[in-house]
Design brief:
The chain is mainly α and about 80 residues long. The chain has one helix at about 15-70. The chain is rod-shaped. The termini are far apart.
Amino acid sequence: MAGETGSGSSRAGGEKAGDAFTRRETAAEELYIRAEERQKLLAIKEKLKQQKQHIDELEKHIDEVTKEGGGQGGA
C-alpha cells in the first residue's frame, strides 16, 4: 500500500480522466496556436500586397522617367 497516495487511482476514471483532460487541453492549445498563426499569415499577406503595389508604382515612375528622358540625350 505504500506509494499509492497521489497515484491517481482514487479519482473517478483514474489515469484515463487525466489523459482526457490533457488531450482536451492540448487540442485547445493547438486551436489557439493555429488561430494566431492564421492572423500572422494574413498580416504578412496584406504587407506583401502593399509591397507589390509600391513596386508597381515604382515601375510606373521608372517607365515615365525613361520615356521622358529618351529623346534628350542625343544632339
